[in-house]
């Protein structure tokens, strides 16, 4: 009788945990699943904490409710699988603003991550060069072409649309620059439309039409009580053995599977398994792949990351606008790149005593030096800049918290998805029982990471079933 499968999931973020849940649901009964997490905490960039007596997210804040095709997102599917659907809450204030020329201006509607389908709608924040978006008788992109978002939008709409709208929108998600980020990876719907449309406004409208949204349907959701509930529930539902503070230092192919070297170099532990889901960021993944698959390691290890800090302030009865928050273009010269008025945006967090939570994101790709400020200086700078943007000095914070996320956000340069596809193909040919998963390959956001983990789990199951036959 064949012994049960033994599967290692390296990485205890939401990607790895989603993979573990899928393995538990789909693998044969008795499958042994172990999650190895280098730190003492599960969840990766999902981390719920407390500040001045309020629940607050020190990492990811929410998830998309729908997938690009219009169905429920992978995050919602996981929430449903874990029995947490009743805990989903939505923003009560959705309008956000741009900090421009010393004041807040509402973000124009009708855009696709800041790229307008109707130039008249963005004239309140930028002056587009409409004459440049001409029909030259051919699609904007070739069949396999990928370009930086900024290059395409600058060519068609001019600098202001990029600098004052698209760049801050992308920067709020990736902490990167529109002039560096891949269109195909960061805006896949627009890239698909651009392969047939002859103008950028036409491509935006086509992309929007391809993914219609019901009027009034919520775009984002989170969990009352915090997203760490999702982490805890996934860890439990997976039935996996969870090993915290367990660094996997080496992966070695052996007959029938893999040997993991775990723990300190002076006293390593060796564990043999049938398959591995590698759900860690690209650089640590590259280190583990350097022995068995050096070419793949070179490709994976070339991905760069941006570091950010999230500074949260608890303010006694501040006067805040009726906005969910605001974005800051890099041209404004502020340390803050985005801010969220948590207790305004999320009605379930409002307090009867008027204490408000405001969270600012600090750090753009290539500007990591700014993050070297001590916590107290970051808090003071954020407090001062928030006051400047709002036009009135905010009250002294009751409490502040700084969460630093080093190397948190992947920077996808043009050709990223092709490089990832080639790396996965090479790995699949050589080692079908080793699968890559995570934001470093498939994109940022909780739904993308959940889907990535689930896909990797399915690949492992298929490979093990094939070897059993």
UniProtKB/TrEMBL annotation:
The keyword Glycoprotein does not apply. It holds the Pfam family Amino_oxidase. GO terms for molecular function: oxygen-dependent protoporphyrinogen oxidase activity. Pathway: Porphyrin-containing compound metabolism; protoheme biosynthesis. It catalyses: coproporphyrinogen III + 3 O2 = coproporphyrin III + 3 H2O2. It is an enzyme of class 1 (oxidoreductase). The keyword Oxidoreductase applies. It is found in: Cytoplasm. Its cofactor is FAD. Keywords: Cytoplasm, FAD, Flavoprotein, Heme biosynthesis, Oxidoreductase. Its EC number is 1.3.3.15. InterPro entries: Amino_oxidase (IPR002937), FAD/NAD-bd_sf (IPR036188), Protoporphyrinogen_oxidase (IPR004572), Zeta_carotene_desat/Oxidored (IPR050464). Residues 14-461 form the Amine oxidase domain. Involved in coproporphyrin-dependent heme b biosynthesis. Catalyzes the oxidation of coproporphyrinogen III to coproporphyrin III. Belongs to the protoporphyrinogen/coproporphyrinogen oxidase family. Coproporphyrinogen III oxidase subfamily. This is Coproporphyrinogen III oxidase.
């Amino acid at each position: 009788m064949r012994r049960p499968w033994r599967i290692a999931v390296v990485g205890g973020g939401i990607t790895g945990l989603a993979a573990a849940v899928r393995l538990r649901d789909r693998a044969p009964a008795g499958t042994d699943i172990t999650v190895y997490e280098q730190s003492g905490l599960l969840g990766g960039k999902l981390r719920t904490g407390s500040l001045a007596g309020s629940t607050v997210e020190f990492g990811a804040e929410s998830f998309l409710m729908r997938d690009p095709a219009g169905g429920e997102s992978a995050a919602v599917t996981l929430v449903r699988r874990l029995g947490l659907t009743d805990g989903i809450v939505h923003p009560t204030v959705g309008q956000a603003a741009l900090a421009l020329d010393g004041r807040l201006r509402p973000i124009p509607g009708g855009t696709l991550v800041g790229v307008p389908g109707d130039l008249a709608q963005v004239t309140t924040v930028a002056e587009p060069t409409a004459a440049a978006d001409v029909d030259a008788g051919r699609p904007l992109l070739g069949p396999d072409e990928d370009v930086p978002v900024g290059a395409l939008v600058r060519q068609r709409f001019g600098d202001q649309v990029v600098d004052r709208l698209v760049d801050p929108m992308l920067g709020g998600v990736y902490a990167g620059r529109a002039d560096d980020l891949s269109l195909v990876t960061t805006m896949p719907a627009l890239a698909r439309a651009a392969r047939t449309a002859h103008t950028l406004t036409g491509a935006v409208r086509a992309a929007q039409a391809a993914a219609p949204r019901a009027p009034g349907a919520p775009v984002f959701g989170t969990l009352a009580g915090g997203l760490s509930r999702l982490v805890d529930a996934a860890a439990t539902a997976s039935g996996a053995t969870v090993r915290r503070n367990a660094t996997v230092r080496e992966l070695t192919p052996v007959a029938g599977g893999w040997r993991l070297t775990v723990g300190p170099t002076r006293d390593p532990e060796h564990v043999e398994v049938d398959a591995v889901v590698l759900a860690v960021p690209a650089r640590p993944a590259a280190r583990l792949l350097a022995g068995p698959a050096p070419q793949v390691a070179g490709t994976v290890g070339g991905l760069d990351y941006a570091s950010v800090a999230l500074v949260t302030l608890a303010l006694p009865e501040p006067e805040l606008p009726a906005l969910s928050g605001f974005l800051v273009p890099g041209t404004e010269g502020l340390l803050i790149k985005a801010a969220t008025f948590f207790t305004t945006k999320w009605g379930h967090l409002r307090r009867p005593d008027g204490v408000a939570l405001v969270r600012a994101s600090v750090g753009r790709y290539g500007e990591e030096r700014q993050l070297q400020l001590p916590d107290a200086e970051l808090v003071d700078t954020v407090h001062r800049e928030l006051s400047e943007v709002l036009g009135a000095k905010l009250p002294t914070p009751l409490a502040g918290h700084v969460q630093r996320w080093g190397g948190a956000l992947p920077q996808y340069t043009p050709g990223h998805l092709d490089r990832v596809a080639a790396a996965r193909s090479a790995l699949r040919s050589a080692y079908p029982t080793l699968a890559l998963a995570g934001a470093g390959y498939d994109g940022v956001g909780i739904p993308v990471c959940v889907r990535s983990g689930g896909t990797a789990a399915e690949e492992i199951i298929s490979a093990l079933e094939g070897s059993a036959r």
